[in-house]
C-alpha cells in the first residue's frame, strides 16, 4: 500500500509560518478528496482542511484566513500553508486521502489513507 509521508513540520514562535508537504502523485489522476488533520496534546484528531479534485476547499473555523490547503499544478503534492500560527495550533499534522470524490466531510473515519504525521510546535 502506498504510504503518505508528510514533511515541513517544526518549531516556531507565535505569529510565524510553516508549510507542510505531502507527495500524492499516485493519486494525481483520481477524483479523490484530500485533507490535513491534526492532533493536539490530549486531544482527538480533528480535520483542518480538505480539497476536492476540482480544487474546492473547506477549513475548520479556527484556521480560516490563516491556513491554505493546495495542490501543485501537476497535482503531485498536497500542501498546507500555515500563517499567523498560534500555540493552540501545536500538534501532530497528518496528510490523508479519502477515496471518494465527495469532500464535504472532516470526519477521520471518512478518510482511508494516512501518513505518519509531522510535528508542529508553536511557542508563545
Summarize the structure.
The protein is mainly beta and 124 residues long.
Q: What distance lies between the first and last C-alpha atoms, to the nearest angstrom?
A: 39 Å
Low-confidence stretches: none
Question: What coarse outline follows from CA principal-axis ratios?
Answer: globular
Q: Kindly state the mean pLDDT as a whole number?
A: 94
Q: How many helices does DSSP assign?
A: 0
Structural class: mainly beta
Roughly what percent helix? Answer: under 10%
Largest sheet: 7 strands, mixed
> What is Rg?
13 Å
Along the chain, the helix and strand elements come as EEEEEEEEEE
Measured by DSSP, the beta-strand proportion falls in 35-45%
Query: How many E strands?
Result: 10
Explain how this protein is built.
The strands form two sheets. Strands 1, 3, 4, 5, 8, 9 and 10 form a seven-stranded mixed β-sheet that branches. This protein has a three-stranded antiparallel β-sheet with strand order 2-7-6, with no helix packed on it. The protein has 124 residues and is mainly beta. The protein has no helices and ten strands.
Give a topology summary.
Blueprint: E1 10-13, E2 18-23, E3 33-39, E4 46-51, E5 57-59, E6 67-71, E7 77-82, E8 91-98, E9 113-114, E10 118-123
Parallel strand pairs: 1-10
Antiparallel strand pairs: 2-7, 3-4, 3-8, 4-5, 6-7, 8-9, 8-10
Q: Which keywords apply here?
A:
three-stranded antiparallel β-sheet; mainly beta; 0% helix; 10 strands; globular; 124 residues
Amino acid at each position: 500500500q502506498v504510504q503518505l509521508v508528510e514533511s515541513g513540520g517544526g518549531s516556531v514562535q507565535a505569529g510565524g509560518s510553516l508549510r507542510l508537504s505531502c507527495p500524492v502523485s499516485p493519486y494525481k489522476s483520481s477524483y479523490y478528496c484530500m485533507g490535513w488533520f491534526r492532533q493536539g496534546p490530549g486531544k482527538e484528531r480533528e480535520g483542518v482542511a480538505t480539497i476536492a479534485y476540482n480544487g474546492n476547499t473547506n477549513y475548520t473555523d479556527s484556521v480560516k484566513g490563516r491556513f491554505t490547503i493546495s495542490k501543485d499544478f501537476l497535482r503531485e503534492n498536497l500542501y498546507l500553508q500555515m500563517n499567523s500560527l498560534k500555540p493552540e495550533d501545536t500538534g501532530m499534522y497528518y496528510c490523508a486521502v479519502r477515496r471518494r470524490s465527495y469532500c464535504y466531510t472532516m470526519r477521520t473515519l471518512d478518510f482511508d489513507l494516512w501518513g505518519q504525521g509531522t510535528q508542529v510546535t508553536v511557542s508563545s
